[in-house]
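Entry: AAA family ATPase
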Amino acid sequence: PTYDNLFGRIEYNSEMGALSTNFQLIRSGALHRANGGYLVLESEKLLEQPFVYGALKRALKSHEIRIENPMSEMTGMGTITLAPQSIPLNVKVVLIGTRETYYLLQELDHDFEKMFRVVVDFDEDVKREPATIRSYARLMKTLADEEGLAPLNRQAVARLVEHSSRLTEDQELLSAHVGELVDLLCEADYKRIRNRDEIINDQHVEMALQAKERRTSRISSKILD
């Protein structure tokens, strides 16, 4: 979510060493395309970009989008030769991030709670039930398809479910951390390719888990020593 990608920009043509523009070079941003609907943003990436968070708050407060050059205030030089008319804004913004980011914004920005009033806290684990396990298996199938991996057999799915319970340290729960699952699936598929098998089985998952344990066992080995 850079400033230009979010609020739009004005492009220029170079003619004889001089920059010129016209109304046909006005480009819309994500807020224009999401106007009347929803815009989902990652909070960490939003805060990494300069000027964006403050400009987003101004747009939501004033209910209008303005295409401006944020650097003009810093440099004191206005390079934009066009001033497009502001557009009425009616959008619902959804910020996704960690709890730490939420508490940080809540503490440092007094407008944050007023502008983002609905808070949803997702749990880090789910109950280990037959219906949940079926959904978990479907999730692994979807992730494998998205990553272009080979399909999994029943034993591989069972081993992943067992590993997910070990991550939560509870036999009655399953971990909701999907990122770790994707990494494990990719490494298990690599083991499958090395063994020249057609599908991912529990042995490939076990080999991937053992390889990960070897790579990250330095501290535990020191403690045992």
